[in-house]
Amino acid sequence: MTFRDTAGMDNSSTDTKRGRILKTAAYYLSFITFGTIIGVIGPTLPELAGQTGTKLSQISYLFTGHSLGYLAGSLLGGQLFDRARGHALIGSALGIMASIMMLIPLVPLLWLLIGILFIIGIAEGVLDVGGNVLLVRVHGDRVGPYMNALHFFFGFGALIAPMVVAKVMALYGDITWAYWFLAFFMFPLSVLIFQVKGPAIRRPSHSDDSRGENRLMVLLITIFFFTHVGVEISYGGWIYTYAVTLGLATEISAAYLTSAFWGALTLGRLLSVPISMRLKPGSMLVINMTGCVVAGIIVLSGTRSVHATWAGTVIMGMSIGPLFATSINFADRNMGITSRVTSWFLIGGGTAGMFFPWFIGQFFESRGPVFMPVVLLITSAAGMIILSCIIVFFSRNRNRSGFLEKPGKRHSV
Fold first, then answer.
1. What are the DSSP calls for 321-345, one per residue?
2. How many CA atoms lie within 13 A of 351 on its CB side?
3. C-alpha distance from residue 192 to each of 27, 88, 124 (Å)
């Protein structure tokens, strides 16, 4: 897929090695902070419910507000990154995220907290589109391993956030300093990224638009994002409350269980960096989705077993970790992607992040905690079916697909 560079040349071919390193490092650090926000909400959910005087079924609306903001930010980012300076957008998003993180543990009203999470979701959506799009602009046809690494750093941020919560709660007995500690590191990064020169704005040609935005292809992959991101966000957001409610863990050990999920997810993404150089994206997706189904079965069959819960959590994290980046690589390899297409994929994931945690919250108390693994197992199985349809579609309608291509062969970017 070729691009028109506003500077009149392909920026990826003229960028210096040092410049690419600086840009890539900036995106990686940004995604660490992005991950900390996702990772901190789940372990602090009961505390936020107490802070606002609400039940778990009500506090779950935080996920809805947060995800609605993310959807809006993804749509906005899909338009802005073809028109404005990418690093200015990312730096602004980080500044907003840091400011909001400072406010979250101070808000006593649920409706106001939902509004605050909506704003931070907008900033996250812009950041998510920007990190994925700008990384492709920097590395071009060599982006595969870098893309997996980008989402590894997101998982790393989500991993350390529950650890911070557990440590702060042990020391101070509340969550305020946990949010403030994480926000503290976002402010200097926001300033720093403004100082790094970003890649030139590049707009796809009309021919690329028609090729990269085949509606059926985009729809199928967007639905696939809906399933696996729904499982990821719901599991990370509810496993803490699930384990505590069933008596499988104390508050502290449940925080570490949440960290185990994000840690396994992070390890899975780290391992996917070298694996993506050897294994085809389609094969990786099938293996990972199979792992999600197996993990769901283990957790559901071991609702009274601490060991089964820990084993299922680790397998789920390892399996679901590489899915996001691999899905993007798979789509880019088979049809090429634009900023607008990328935003639709993120909207699919954002919609899932809004719906599934909210849906689980509505029935968590009335149907019991086991409702969570039931929903996520069904969703994982649905994701496997959708993935099969995608692979069949590409196999029948294109000469090559993620299954059929050699690992090193890619469309030019």
1. TTHHHHHHHHHHHHT---HHHHHHH
2. 13
3. 11, 11, 18
Rg (CA), the chain: 20
- State the pLDDT at residue 287: 95
Separation of alpha carbons 147 and 123, rounded Å: 20
Residue 142: CB partners within 8 Å, gap ≥ 6? none
Stretches where the chain sits below pLDDT 70 are 1-15, 200-213, 397-413
CA distance linking residue 150 with residue 58, whole number of Å: 34
**295, 315 contact by CB (below 8 A):** yes
Cα 92 to Cα 74, 88, 275, 371, distances in angstroms: 15, 6, 34, 39
C-beta of residue 23 within 8 angstroms of C-beta of residue 226: no
Q: Which of 350, 361, 329 is nearest to 226 (CA)?
A: 350
DSSP state of 3: E
Tell me, what amino acid is at 396? Answer: R
CA–CA separation, 197 vs 187, rounded Å? 18
Provide the 3-class DSSP secondary structure of residue 50: helix
Element (H, E) at 258: helix 251-275
Tokens of 32: 């660490």
CA distance 132 to 250: 37
Q: Give the domains, in start order, of the chain with CATH numbers.
A: 15-397 (1.20.1250.20)
**CB burial of residue 141 (10 Å; 0-12, 13-18, 19+):** middle
Q: Considering all CA atoms of the chain, what is the largest pairwise distance in Å, rounded to the nearest integer?
A: 63
3-state secondary structure of 195: helix
**Contact 160/181 with Cβ under 8 angstroms?**
no
Q: Where are the beta strands (DSSP E) in 289-403?
A: none
Look-up: residue for tokens 């991950």? 35
- Amino acid letter for position 356: F
d(CA 28, CA 25): 5
Query: Is 0.85 topped by the overall pTM?
Result: no
202 has which bridge partners?
5
Position 402, amino acid: G
Helix (H) or strand (E) holding 224, with range, is: helix 215-245
Report pLDDT for 312. Answer: 94
